[in-house]
Design brief:
The chain contains one helix and 33 strands. The chain is mainly beta and 421 residues long. The chain folds into four domains: 55 residues; 163 residues, Jelly Rolls (Sandwich), CATH 2.60.120.1440; 99 residues, Immunoglobulins (Immunoglobulin-like), CATH 2.60.40.10; 77 residues, Immunoglobulin-like.
C-alpha cells in the first residue's frame, strides 16, 4: 500500500513537472511572437519614415515672403544673400530673395521657380541678381538682372497685372504669357542677345520699344537693338551617331569624321565645332575648338580609347550665332574584353528636393554615368555622383575603355539594386 502511494505521488510530481514545463514553453513562445511583432512594427515604421523623408532635415526653413525657390541644381552654385552679404554654396533645395545673387560655376546650373510660376534656368558661368519677386494686386512682379552668362526663361499663362522682366545692361525685356526666351550677356563687351522660340517679348532700350516674336533674334550693342532677324537654328549632328561605339583595332587610335546638317534658311557664314572629354566642355578637357569652318565636316585622327562629347553651332552672314546643339557623345574602345563590372556598397544620400548623392565602390577608373552627369571611380574604386530626379529610382551605368558596361537601377529610398540592365 505504501509502495503504491509512493508511485502515485511520483506520477503526480512528473505530471506537475510536465505541466509546469509546458506552461513555461507556451509563455516563452507567446513572448517571442510578441517580440517579433513589435520588431516588425518598428521596422515598418522606420521604413515608412525613411520612404517619406521624415528623418531628412527640411530643405527650406524660414523662407522670406515671396521668395523664389531653387527647385534643382547641378555642380557648384553659389548664392550671395543681400541681407547678410554671406555667400553660400547650394547643397540642398533653398530659396533666393529680392537682392540675392546667383552665381554658377563652369559645371553649375540652377533651376529657379519665381512667384508667378515662371521657371528660370541659370546656365553655367552665369551671374543673375533677383531684383524683385513680389505679389502686386493679385498679380506678380518678377524682375531679374543678367550680368553675365546665359539665362533661359519659360512663362505660362499669367494675369494682365503680372510683370516678368529681364534686365541686361541698359535694356529691359518684358516677357508675355506662354513664352520661351533665351538671354545671353557678355560682361566684357557689354553686348547681349535675345532669342525667342515661343511667344513674344517687348524689349525697351533708351525709351524705344521693340517686339520680338516666335523664332526671332536680336542683339543689343551700344545702347540699341541691332540685327533683328529670323532665329538661326543650331546645326543637326549626323555622324558619329549619339552613343556610338568605335573600335580601335590597331591600338594606334581611330580616325573619326564629324558631319552635320543645316536646315536653317538664314545664310550661313561658318560653323564652330568643339570636341571634349567632358560633358560640360571644361576648358582643360576640350580637344578640338575650331571656328570658321566653311564645310559641314571635320576629321580627327588618333583618338585613344575613352568617351568623347561633341557639339556644333553656326554663324550667319549678319553676325548672328546660333545656340549649341545638345551635345552628342561617342566611345572609342579597344578590341578585347575585361572582367565583368560589378558594384558594391551602394549608398543614396538625399541632399534636398529632387537632388541625391549616389555612391558605391567598383573597379578603379570606371566611368559612372546617370541623368546626364558622370564621374570616374577613384584609385580605390569609390565614386560619388550627384543626380537630380523626381522619381523613386534611377539608372546608373558603368563602363570601361574596352567597351564593357553594366547598368543598375537603384532605389533612391533604400539604396537597393532593383534590377540590372
Amino acid at each position: 500500500m505504501d509502495k503504491h502511494n509512493q508511485q502515485h505521488q511520483q506520477q503526480q510530481q512528473y505530471k506537475k513537472f510536465y505541466l509546469d514545463w509546458w506552461r513555461i514553453r507556451r509563455s516563452t513562445i507567446y513572448g517571442l511572437i510578441a517580440a517579433v511583432a513589435l520588431i516588425s512594427l518598428i521596422s515598418f515604421g522606420v521604413w515608412y519614415a525613411m520612404r517619406n523623408n521624415w528623418f531628412l532635415q527640411e530643405a527650406i526653413t524660414d523662407v522670406p515672403k515671396d521668395a523664389a525657390r531653387i527647385l534643382s541644381f547641378e555642380g557648384e552654385v553659389r548664392i550671395t544673400r543681400a541681407s547678410t552679404r554671406e555667400t553660400i554654396i547650394v547643397t540642398k533645395e533653398t530659396y533666393v530673395a529680392a537682392g540675392d545673387t546667383i552665381q554658377t560655376q563652369a559645371d553649375g546650373k540652377a533651376i529657379v521657380q519665381m512667384i508667378d510660376g515662371s521657371v528660370y534656368t541659370v546656365r553655367p558661368n552665369s551671374t543673375v541678381i533677383i531684383r524683385n519677386n513680389t505679389s502686386i494686386f493679385g498679380g506678380a512682379n518678377v524682375r531679374v538682372s543678367l550680368d553675365d552668362g546665359q539665362l533661359n526663361v519659360r512663362t505660362e499663362q499669367q494675369p494682365e497685372s503680372a510683370q516678368n522682366v529681364v534686365e541686361m545692361f541698359d535694356s529691359e525685356t518684358a516677357l508675355k504669357s506662354q513664352t520661351d526666351a533665351s538671354f545671353n550677356a557678355d560682361s566684357q563687351t557689354s553686348g547681349a542677345e535675345i532669342r525667342i522660340t515661343r511667344g513674344s517679348v517687348d524689349t525697351t532700350v533708351g525709351g524705344a520699344k521693340t517686339t520680338l516674336s516666335e523664332n526671332e533674334f536680336a542683339s543689343l550693342n551700344n545702347g540699341r537693338i541691332t540685327n533683328k532677324e529670323q532665329l538661326l537654328l543650331p546645326p543637326k549632328p549626323t555622324s558619329p551617331a549619339d552613343a556610338a561605339q568605335l573600335v580601335d583595332n590597331t591600338g594606334a587610335g581611330v580616325s573619326v569624321g564629324f558631319t552635320w546638317q543645316d536646315d536653317s534658311t538664314v545664310p550661313i557664314s561658318g560653323y564652330y565645332l568643339q570636341v571634349s572629354r567632358s560633358p560640360i566642355f571644361a576648358a582643360d578637357a576640350i580637344m578640338v575648338d575650331r571656328s570658321s569652318l566653311t564645310t559641314r565636316e571635320f576629321r580627327l585622327a588618333g583618338l585613344a580609347p575613352g568617351t568623347y562629347y561633341w557639339r556644333i553651332k553656326s554663324s550667319s552672314r549678319s553676325g548672328q550665332t546660333s545656340e549649341w546643339n545638345p551635345h552628342w557623345k561617342f566611345t572609342v574602345v579597344r578590341r578585347g574584353s575585361s572582367p565583368a563590372i560589378d558594384v558594391g556598397s551602394w549608398g543614396v544620400e538625399p541632399v534636398g528636393g529632387n537632388v541625391y548623392l549616389i555612391s558605391g565602390r567598383t573597379q578603379p577608373g570606371l566611368l559612372v554615368r546617370s541623368q546626364g552627369n558622370q564621374v570616374f571611380a577613384g584609385p580605390d574604386g569609390s565614386f560619388r555622383l550627384q543626380i537630380s530626379s523626381p522619381l523613386s529610382e534611377v539608372a546608373v551605368e558603368l563602363s570601361d575603355d574596352r567597351g564593357n558596361r553594366a547598368g543598375f537601377v537603384i532605389s533612391l529610398r533604400n539604396s537597393r539594386v532593383l534590377r540590372k540592365f
